[in-house]
Specification:
mainly alpha; Rossmann fold; two-stranded parallel sheet; 6 helices; 7% strand
Length: 108
């Protein structure tokens, strides 16, 4: 969404909309490599929301690997400081429910 907004000139408006959403969900966080421009965009979004709105991240990548995934020490420090400060962490353990369901369907 932000990449498109850069192209069509609506980046500022899109950033304002993301800042105003009560709960922003970033699903499958760190699933794919983060491009350089996206790092800066992410910092802007997170910085605009920090301390005023809720942000939920879901990820298969353990939190201790997020810094390396961002792949820029300075930006990683800034982003993660805003995300992790005052955060609640829920770590899910156990089998993948998708895998379990697929196995059950295959057996029936």
């Amino acid at each position: 969404q932000l990449r498109i907004a850069h192209g069509d000139g609506s980046f500022g408006r899109t950033l304002q909309q993301l800042a105003k959403v009560d709960v922003l969900v970033l699903d499958d966080w760190a699933l794919a490599p983060l491009e350089e421009g996206a790092r800066h965009d992410l910092l802007e979004v997170i910085d605009d929301r920090a301390g005023s709105r809720s942000t939920i991240l879901t990820s298969q990548l353990p939190i201790e690997h997020w810094h390396g995934w961002i792949n820029d020490p300075t930006l990683a420090d800034a982003i993660l400081d805003r995300l992790v400060h005052n955060a609640y962490r829920l770590t899910m353990k156990g089998e993948s429910l998708r895998r379990k369901k697929a196995e059950e369907q295959a057996a029936s």
